[in-house]
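User: For a reading group we're discussing how well predicted structures match intuition. Take Tyr recombinase domain-containing protein. Before you show the prediction, I'll give you the sequence so everyone sees exactly what went in.
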Amino acid sequence: MLDPKFVDGSSVDASVQRKRGRPPLPIVTHPVSLWEVHEDPRDFHAALDLQIRRHGENSHRLHRAIVAAGGLTDRTTLAAWRRGLKVPQTPASLKVLDIIEHRYRLETGYLRSRLQRRRALRGLVPPETPYSESRRLAWHLPDDFDERSAREQEEILDWVRATILSGGTAYHRYHSTVSKHRFALRFNGSGPEDLAAPTHLREEMDALLRFKSATLTDIGYQRSGVWGPETAAQREEHLALLFGALAALPDDEVSGLGVAKEDLTFGLLVVPSVWDWYVQWRERRRGFFTGWESEMLLLGAAFSRSETGWIRQNPWLAGRLRPVPGIITQEEIDRISGHWDEACERVHRHALARAKEIERVARVHRDPFEPILPILEATSPVGEYRKITEEVLRRMPDERRYPRAAAEAVRSFLMLRLGLHLGVRQKNLRQLLLRPRGSPATPERELESRRCGELRWSDREGGWEVFIPCVAFKNSGSAYFSKRPFRLLLPDLGGLYRWIDAYVGRHRSALLNGSRDPGTFFVKTVKVSSRNAAYNQNTFYDAWRQVIQRYGIYNPYTQKGAIRGLLPHGPHNVRDVLATHVLKQTGSYEQASYAIQDTPATVAAHYGRFLPQDKAALAAQVLNRVWDEAA
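Assistant: Thanks. Here is the predicted 3D structure of Tyr recombinase domain-containing protein, as structure tokens, for the group to look at:
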């Protein structure tokens, strides 16, 4: 609030009396502008400097007026704002902008709108909040957060943490809780020492990965199916959880089995009681069984399968078995060692039977549709999702003043646009290579060997083309591809080509910041703490999720965000959006499968959310034409 003693056009003497020299000029509440402005600068520092000169003042005189009006800032800071050396970043400094706008009779938000971020970067969140969380929170808090009551502040913080940061679903709340207690073993040597897998277990894991990933199997071995890099990484992660649970102490937060790390071995996976303990342990933690436990049992059954199971073909694993109280005795170990095939056959049958039992009672904990329900329920799901890209453009920072922030916004826009046009999985989008205009296309054979696609300019078609060899897809053997590559000419709609050219020409180099170019279209923002510009599976998911958090979720406290009720999600959900959109428009699972390069059966089982009311509405469109024709 401005000091009530100031009246429009009135003046008072300065409160500070100097003993010598000329007395300070009186403070005028609303100084008269000396000229009209026909084109306002877009830069904050230029606009502030213009308004100060336009009203016949300098930094010193404006500072005295700000202090008298109840604002707090240093005179040197005000001068630094004018020169573009600093910008307001705290609630107190944003209040100073309100005072200046009121003093010069400027429209509300005249100066704030010229900032890269119109919110305080510091001083909003409670001081006890960890710095990592405060940086994320500050994006989603209103500028007047510090002026609100303690009850309102707590309400806003709870909403942001529950809806935007943690995800809002029951699964995300569960995952946020259990992820605080790390127990999975590390096979790559990273992480805390107490979670490092013992040497002999790492050797066993390496042998398994070679067996399932090598182009040719070793002489004397047989296998069924080959793991690609992503599948191998996923299986390693799942087995790391299993062995980590076996090794965790019974009396800590994890409540593990307490097996000594030196006694861990893949040989334990031929013991039925080990599998029973593990799936029941997961059921106790979660509160119910899910399909995940059934899939793990099927993996165990595959390991012990006759002729092609890896464990079945490695009887030397029996020599590493040691007694585990309540699980396996020395007598059972001796029996397993003497009859390895029989033991493997027994656990194979047991795992298959348990998997069927769990399938009957399994519940869905992670509903993939839940975060995007407001989009899937819309008449045009793709049109609804497009609102997020429009929100990104609407809040685009000034590139001249904030080149890196503008580059990040353009990258966010293109991530969503290409995801909506292509409908490919995260891996294919993340690994998409770039060939700028005028550069020759990478030969198809080279792309096949690298198992990735490419965005390139097609002189023949006169547009940007995406080319991905079929071997780069997870379902490369699907009838959709028929061993043919995926090729799509991107449509120049909504200024797409203009933004691609701007990203390739300027923004991408701003993100790289002089670091080594990984050659992919999408690159991370290179910082002092991280010089690697290449995305991996986790960082790309986080980048997409952050776009949704900042631009997609409607925030009632800041009035920003595109879609009410939306929750954070990753790039895979775009495939649900595309499939559901086509289903609502055509009712055809086959046409929906074309949008995501898959089969109708897969769409029906995993992607399309085609409810009875959607089917009824589609049928009504056909039937209602009879009445239109009659009329």
